[in-house]
Predict the 3D structure of the following.
Amino acid sequence: MKKDVIILAIETSCDDTSVAVVRNGAEVLSNIVWNQNMTHEKFGGIVPELGARRHLKVINYVIEEAIKSSGIELKDLDAVAVNNQKGLIRSLVVGVAAAKTISFSLNIPLISVHHIEGHIYSNILSHPELKFPHLCLTVSGGHNLLVLVNTHFSYEIIGNTLDDACGEVFDKVARFLNLGFPGGPIIDKLSKEGDSKKFKFSRPMLDQDNFNFSFSGLKTEITRFYEKNKNNSDLKIVDVAASFQQAVVDTLIGKTIKAAKKFNLTQISVVGGVSANSKLREDFKNYENKFGFKVFFPEMGYTTDNAAMIGAVAYYKFLNQSFEDLNLDVFPNRPL
Ligand code: KG4
Ligand code: ZN
């Protein structure tokens, strides 16, 4: 009988310290996420140096917790995987150092994973029925791509952001409106009480014949609009939030559907922190019925950064015997 493959996975690219134990790339035995929101919220954004120090402080504890709550023992591990590509350099270093130590001391293979690849696999983890090829929209604080996912490890980027990623714009608009950090979930919640048709903000690049995005101008448009109208007693912040969110959602969905049609793909996968957005989910589902696409969203716990998604990718790399040595480096800006 085929032996199970049990992988310990580590993700420390930004402001979440996460460690998971994943069996056969599909069964998540544990997925611990230590989020640093309290460390960064008073600054209205992530402070890289503070983030790295926080990772260092908690990484051993998070590893212990992940092992303990998975019900396995260290000797059961077949490999250790780590995200070493794409993220804040000093944060990545903490995860990579921990992974190397485990690989060396337990004498098990070391596997490296690209952060965006992790997000792509978060949906393969959530939906085993999602097949290749499919179109993946990755929307997060640090990336905003449209990717043709042809098969395992075969990606073709057909659209990218020319400036800010849409999660970053959610965070920046929320900071400007003094709503708190991280901005995405706050704007999502507030928008439920607002009128999304109240203000017609632009849908950037939607009418252009390419699959790129640009959200920085929309951010400026919102801030200028607010500065001009903030003393108007009729202005409701929930309407600004809902109208802004609708502009982002329409743009993301419009571009994605255009790409799915052009490349003749009927499966759309939406991943990354912004894939948690309730309006994006609702509107995509409506288009699903209209156009006959099937749209997949990860389970909520696998939308924002988590190590389970790293463990899912690593399983397929394990099957390919794609291992690293202890000289493994970090690559903060390496493209997918
Ligand atoms: O994937 P992630 O944890 O980190 C990166 O890879 O960047 O994504 C974090 C981003 C933040 O910008 C956050 O505001 C956004 O995801 N986000 C949301 C929601 N939940 C998280 N944006 C919109 N609506 C949400 N519900
Ligand atoms: Zn991410």
Notes: The pocket of zinc ion (ligand 2) is lined by residues 115, 119, 140, 272, 305 (CB under 6 Å). The first strand starts at residue 6 and ends at 11.
